[in-house]
């Protein structure tokens, strides 16, 4: 048995009995703490790496002026209980040097609670610890306790350097008729290695219980919460973002659209001007299919065919653009709307001469509009110049009103025209027939005012007789 020279604290025989009673009560308390601490490990598994293995070495000495100093190897296994608490099963061993030989002086396993003073995100994590133990000091064995403080510095998520200092409360040992107690202080430096199985279903490096985006596709870079990175903060993850460094719109896969024309700036040939998708985001004011920036004739009438520079085409080179040319593929004079002049037959010329436009009336009126008198005059002159010409007259109405009323209205309209013709010197017998048709033969739709105006009319059919 190796004996260490220490200053002893002498306890009187009168106090021995009371001290033994207190020590027995302390043993019961320590045993109760051990049971509670072990039970806590059942519910404390909340960290990724729940286990830690510590290996350290340091020095210790008695709390006396002339106490000895020795080396203290240390080994512990820790279990994560909560962000603030760890449970540690630790063993300290005291080695005093004597005659250049290491001699085992004490062995002291402890069950400690370690209170962490910072969170898991910090590299530097100070702590406090305390707990009961079982001390063998070369002569006797008994329950004791220790307490101390320290800090850990994490080089990586699983490896830390630790430094701590603590106090070890000794046990009572009988020396002859005296009871003595050795108390120690110690300082330790060592490494802690954390381990434990971590479940990471999407293999993004963030455990499932910390992963706020547990179904991230394989290979996608994530943040500390396991969610895909969004560098520009536009709500579109980088792996889905066509413009990951520039905030943009979800509808455009994270790309910006300065002119708000629905085309991403990266694809927009005119990113600062509202434009058309068909023209890569450029405007076309005249709608000819050529962008304004390339259009040399920006005011081309809508619907006209244009060339690559946006100017109207004159296919037949007759001086009229195709859009105003009735015969765009055949050259013709402007007076004939771009069509070649056609020689008419005698019959065609006569048919054109015999054509007289209808006379129109206001709503529910039998008197023709004053401006329409020129048409009646044309008919009168035609009949005067051609004694073999006669005329048939038909009267019409729009769909407003009853059928019978409209028939009578048509009769009155014919009568007003016939009166004007005969007043012009044409005999009534040259009017071969008059037919009031009412609304039965419309020239246009009766659903619009414009259409109904075209239906309120008297028409002429000039006939050549032998």
Number of helices: 5
Which regions have little confidence, pLDDT < 50, spanning 5+ residues?
1-46
CATH architecture of the largest domain: Beta Barrel
Main sheet record: 8 strands, antiparallel, barrel
- Strand order, main sheet: write it out: 1-2-3-4-5-6-7-10
What is the beta-strand fraction? 25-35%
Helix content: 10-25%
Order of helices and strands: HEEEEEEEEEEHEHEHEHE
Shape: rod-shaped
- Work out the count of structural domains: 3
**Mind telling me the C-alpha Rg?**
56 Å
**Mean pLDDT value:** 84
**What is the fold-level CATH name, i.e. the topology of the largest domain?**
Porin
What does this structure look like?
With 466 residues, the chain is α+β, with helices and mostly antiparallel strands. The chain folds into three domains: 13-195, Porin; 284-342, no CATH class; 346-464, 2-Layer Sandwich (60s Ribosomal Protein L30, Chain: A). Helices cover 17% and strands 29% of the residues. Strands 1-2-3-4-5-6-7-10 form an eight-stranded antiparallel barrel.
């Amino acid at each position: 048995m190796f004996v260490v020279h220490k200053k002893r604290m002498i306890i009187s025989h009168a106090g021995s009995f009371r001290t033994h009673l207190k020590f027995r009560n302390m043993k019961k308390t320590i045993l109760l703490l051990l049971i509670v601490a072990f039970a806590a490990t059942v519910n404390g598994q909340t960290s990724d790496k729940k286990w830690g293995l510590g290996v350290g070495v340091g020095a210790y000495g008695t709390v006396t002026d002339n106490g000895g100093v020795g080396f203290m190897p240390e080994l512990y296994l820790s279990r994560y209980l909560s962000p603030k608490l760890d449970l540690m099963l630790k063993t300290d061993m005291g080695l005093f040097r004597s005659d250049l030989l290491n001699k085992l002086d004490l062995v002291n396993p402890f069950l400690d609670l370690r209170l962490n003073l910072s969170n898991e995100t910090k590299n530097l994590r100070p702590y406090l610890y305390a707990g009961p133990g079982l001390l063998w000091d070369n002569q006797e064995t008994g329950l004791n306790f220790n307490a101390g403080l320290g800090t850990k510095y994490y080089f990586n998520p699983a490896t830390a350097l630790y430094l701590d200092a603590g106090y070890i409360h000794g046990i009572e040992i009988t020396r002859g008729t005296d009871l003595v107690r050795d108390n120690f202080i110690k300082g330790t430096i060592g490494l802690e290695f954390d381990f434990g199985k971590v479940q990471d279903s999407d293999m993004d490096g963030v455990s499932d219980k910390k992963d706020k985006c547990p179904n991230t596709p394989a290979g996608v870079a994530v943040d500390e919460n396991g969610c895909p990175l969004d560098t520009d903060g536009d709500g579109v993850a980088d792996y889905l973002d066509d413009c990951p460094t520039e905030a943009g719109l979800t509808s455009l896969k994270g790309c910006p659209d300065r002119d708000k024309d629905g085309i991403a700036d990266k694809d927009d040939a005119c990113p600062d001007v509202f434009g058309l998708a068909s023209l890569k985001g450029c405007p076309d004011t005249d709608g000819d299919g050529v962008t304004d920036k390339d259009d040399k004739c920006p005011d081309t009438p809508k619907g006209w065919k244009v060339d690559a520079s946006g100017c109207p085409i004159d296919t037949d080179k007759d001086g009229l653009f195709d859009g105003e040319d009735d015969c765009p593929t055949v050259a013709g004079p402007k007076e004939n709307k771009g069509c070649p002049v056609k020689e008419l037959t005698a019959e065609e010329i006569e048919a054109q001469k015999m054509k007289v436009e209808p006379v129109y009336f206001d709503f529910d009126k039998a008197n023709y509009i004053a401006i329409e008198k020129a048409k009646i005059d044309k008919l009168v002159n035609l009949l005067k110049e051609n004694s073999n010409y006669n005329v048939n007259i038909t009267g019409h109405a729009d769909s407003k009103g009853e059928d019978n009323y409209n028939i009578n209205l048509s009769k009155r309209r014919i009568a007003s025209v016939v009166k004007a013709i005969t007043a012009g010197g044409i005999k009534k017998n040259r009017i071969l027939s008059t037919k009031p048709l009412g609304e039965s033969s419309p020239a246009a739709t009766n659903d619009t005012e414009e259409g109904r105006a075209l239906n309120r009319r008297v028409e002429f059919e000039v006939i050549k007789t032998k």
